Amino acid sequence: MEAAEQLRFDREHIWHPYTSIDNPLEVFLVESAEGVRIRLHDGRELIDGMASWWSVIHGYNNPHLTKVVQDQAAKLAHVMFGGLTHQPAIQLAQLLIANTPAGLERVFFCDSGSVAVEVAMKMAIQYNYAKGISGKNRFLTIKAGYHGDTFHAMSVCDPVSGMHQIYQGILPEYFFADMPRCRFAGDWDEADVLSLEKLLEENHSTICAVILEPIVQGAGGMRFYHPQYLRRARELCDTYQVLLIADEIATGFGRSGELFACNHASISPDILCLGKALTGGYMTLAAVLATAEVGHVISRGEPSVFMHGPTFMANPLACSVAVASIELLLASDWQSNIGRIEAELKKGLEPCGPLAGVKEVRVLGAIGVVELDRPVNMARIQQRFVDNGVWVRPFGRLVYVMPSYIIDNQDLGFLTGAICRVVEAELSV
Ligand SMILES: *Cc1c(COP(=O)(O)O)cnc(C)c1O
Fold first, then answer.
1. Which of 331, 363, 382 is a domain's end point?
2. How far is the CA of 273 from the centre of ligand 1 (A)?
3. pLDDT per residue over 91-113, tens digit each?
4. Residue 148 C-alpha to ligand 1 middle, in angstroms?
5. In angstroms, what is the span from residue 131 Cα to ligand 1's centroid?
6. Beta strand pairing status for 286-291 and 271-274?
7. Is residue 36 a part of any domain in this protein?
8. Is the CB of 138 under 6 A from ligand 1?
9. Residue 151, domain member (yes or no)
10. Are 342 and 397 members of one domain?
11. Are 61 and 36 in contact (CB under 8 A)?
């Protein structure tokens, strides 16, 4: 099939994320990708700013990771996890337990971030059920969050941007604390946590867990909040005997400058969700880690088992490449590398700051955000980015990048330069 024909078929038959099937936005046909470059079918090359939504941390087609997948495919591509186990899953669990915040030592593998959130929420409900505490089965989260697209994950996404009104009567209605206002590197104000505290004080007997994205609120607004908020959330959860679920699906594996964003506040959650960068972007895989206590309570009470078990649980291809990706990351000087990317993003995006129509430029770790005062025209800005030789996919008022960690300063300069030009053009329409 010719490229034009393929694209026509795609336009007429295939749904892309958050798009209309009748009036789709243009999509670009990718031929291959290498390092930080995405090659389109017509030979154009784009410098990638998105790492395919946080996940491709070592760049595309990393020779070592590709070989690990190939070797594993030749040995054991998949086997059911009910009653069977395998070295890739065991090795991955060991690595996760050793490197995530202290105390997390029971691992549940699943297929995607949204399912990991479902699993974490089910754990929190089963934990209280097993304890014989009735009615402690609701959730508290913070506004402007994002936790995925399945039903219960959706129920703890921001109610406005998550369009909860569509699902009224079907979607459970949970507690939403005001979003943290104190910035990551700003001053701390205890008033920031009052909304969370009040909701817990008044409703803790019905709340089984607080679920939040530590430090970085991702797809719900790309905001970086104060570590003291997270410390206070941990304390309040302890005070009111509510579990803390940390959704590090976006932030895990170094993205925010710490290996896990919880480390900024030196706290451990009771349950941790990982996904996205877990396999270096090679395969879909997610993991939920829980404390021994959560594991024991669930297993000792009724029904004495955790009620979940996906068909492709702990897929060996995904586990083996996750092991290789984590080892690659830990063997590198990742922390100073993320510091380098942070400094370059700050320098490169700074010229956007004074532009009329730019609300704020902010950078944390390998995440750069240009927040505008109005939503972008997606079709127009997407084409402009491609014309400028970069792959950046904004949403709403947010133009943001989270490049692969292997991006060098020259490519980073090219990327941020393109962002400044495109943002300026977009704002001058
Ligand atoms: C992406 C994301 C999810 C959902 O993960 P999927 O793999 O897309 O289902 C959940 N939580 C956070 C914080 C995310 O960034």
1. 331
2. 9
3. 999 999 999 999 999 999 999 99
4. 5
5. 29
6. antiparallel
7. yes
8. no
9. yes
10. yes
11. no
Whether 162 and 44 map to the same domain: the answer is no
In short, whether 256's Cβ falls inside 6 Å of ligand 1 is: no
Instruction: Give catalytic status of residue 131 as yes or no.
Output: no
Instruction: Please check whether residues 21 and 57 belong to one and the same domain.
Output: yes
- 355 in the same domain as 246: no
- Cα separation of 372 and 398, whole Å? 6
The domain tally of the chain equals 2
Choosing from 111, 247, 270, 411, the catalytic residue is: 247
Q: What is the CATH number of the domain that holds 236?
A: 3.40.640.10
Task: Please check whether residues 373 and 407 belong to one and the same domain.
Answer: yes
Residue 384 clears pLDDT 90, i.e. is over it:
yes
Supply φ then ψ for residue 272, to 5 degrees. -125, 130
Spatial separation of the C-alpha atoms in residues 116 and 290, rounded to whole Å: 12
Residue 66 lies in a domain: no
What the block records as the tokens of 291 is 């404390």
Q: 341 and 313 in one domain? A: no
Tell which of 331, 355, 384 closes a domain: 331
240: annotated active-site residue: no
Q: Are residues 247 and 169 in the same domain?
A: yes
Tell me the helix, strand and coil percentages in the chain, rounded to 5. 40, 20, 40
- Are 27 and 100 part of one and the same domain? no
Structure-token pair, residue 144: 């402007």
Q: What is the CATH number of the domain that holds 363?
A: 3.90.1150.10
Calpha distance 211→80 (Å, rounded): 30
Q: For this structure, is 18 an active site residue?
A: yes
Read off the pTM: 0.98
Residue nearest atom 5 in ligand 1 by C-alpha distance: 113
Question: Is residue 146 annotated as part of the catalytic site, yes or no?
Answer: yes
Residue-wise pLDDT for 303-322, tens only, equals: 999 999 999 999 999 999 99
Residue 341: domain span: 3-61+333-427
Ranges assigned E (strand) in 117-170: 138-142
**Cβ–ligand 1 contact at 204 (below 6 Å):** no
CA distance 101 to 272: 9
Residue 90 has a pLDDT of 98
Compute the C-alpha angle 389/396/426, nearest 5°: 50
pLDDT of residue 302: 87
The first and second tokens of residue 9, run together, are 């078929």
In 3D, which of 191, 269, 255 has the Cα closest to residue 224?
255
Angle of the 334-349 helix axis to the 409-427 helix axis, nearest 10: 30
* Range list of H helices, 302-408: 316-331, 334-349, 378-387
Residue 114 CA: nearest ligand 1 atom is 9
